[in-house]
Specification:
Length: 294
């Protein structure tokens, strides 16, 4: 399937099933076409972006003994995954001149994002909440509209949102295990493993596309668009080893660590300590620091 056709299906189809339909063939990029910047994804009626401050925020992990609160958490995370998928489709349409190898790589990541959306949506449904029953926000999508080039995208999505998800996936695995929900925990571990590869992809292309005279860290900083900052790329339980597995050099991780220390009391690489503070902050921020203020 041609990348443009795939991107248009994900972005412009009103059917969730069509957006998430797995492509069983290899991708090709023979006709990337003209650059198009889509202002809003087409979505089914029950997944339209909600007005500012009307989508529910992430439930506090201390409430996760209640299946309804866990269902809402999966509902919110399904919408994060769907937005990531839509942003990647937006990138394919907005930057047809980007290297073919990069564009094909984005499409492979999109296969994972389709699967992640389904996993969260199905888990929410099995806990009693159908995807689309609650309002959803547009926080991640709104950030994409500020990407003027591929480096802006790499700094914003793979290295900030997906980078932070390296931490949040394992934090949520811990929260779900604490209430005996092994199925929800397994989803977070699965997504964590995929996210390592997504961050690897982002860093690798940042390295390849950056100006020769600038370091990777300088390039990352230069392409972050306000209000995204380095501290938005870290969670509470800073996962050093996952970042190493993603190919981030220790120098880059060190910059992130220093940001983490400036940001709050969670200690790098440690998990489960300061759990009340950690949980409270994760409950507020999760993948999306403005979850109910889109
Ligand atoms: Fe994902
Ligand atoms: Fe991802």
């Amino acid at each position: 399937m041609e990348l443009r056709e795939f991107a248009e299906r994900v972005l412009l189809s009103p059917s969730l099933e069509a957006k998430l339909e797995r492509v069983g063939t290899a991708f090709t990029d023979e006709q990337p076409g003209e650059a198009v910047r889509v202002s809003e994804p087409v979505r089914p009626d029950n997944l339209q972006f909600a007005p500012r401050r009307t989508a529910p925020g992430m439930p506090h992990p201390d409430t996760f003994a209640d299946p309804a609160r866990r269902a809402l958490a999966h509902h919110i995370m399904a919408n994060h995954e769907l937005q990531a998928l839509e942003v990647m489709a937006w990138v394919l349409l907005a930057f047809p001149e980007a290297p073919t190898e990069f564009r094909l790589g984005v499409a492979e990541v999109m296969r994972d994002e389709q699967r992640h959306t389904k996993m969260h949506a199905e888990r929410a449904a099995s806990l009693g909440l159908a995807f689309g029953e609650r309002p959803v926000n547009c926080y991640i999508w709104k950030k994409a509209l500020e990407f003027a080039n591929v480096l802006d995208y790499l700094a914003g999505l793979p290295l900030t949102f997906e980078g932070r998800n390296l931490d949040h996936t394992l934090e949520f695995e811990r929260y779900f295990l604490a209430v005996g929900d092994a199925k929800s925990a397994a989803i977070m571990r699965h997504i964590h493993r995929d996210e390592i590869e997504h961050v690897r992809f982002g860093y690798e292309w940042l390295r390849r596309l950056k100006p020769a005279e600038a370091s990777e860290w300088e390039t990352y900083l230069a392409h972050l668009k306000w209000p995204l900052r380095p501290d938005k790329g870290i969670g509470d339980d800073f996962q050093v080893e996952s970042r190493r597995q993603a190919g981030l050099p220790d120098e880059f991780i060190g910059h992130l660590c220093r940001t983490a220390k400036a940001y709050g009391p969670a200690e790098s690489g440690k998990s489960g300590e300061n759990s009340l503070t950690s949980s409270e902050r994760a409950g507020e921020s999760m993948v999306d620091p403005a979850d109910n203020s889109n």
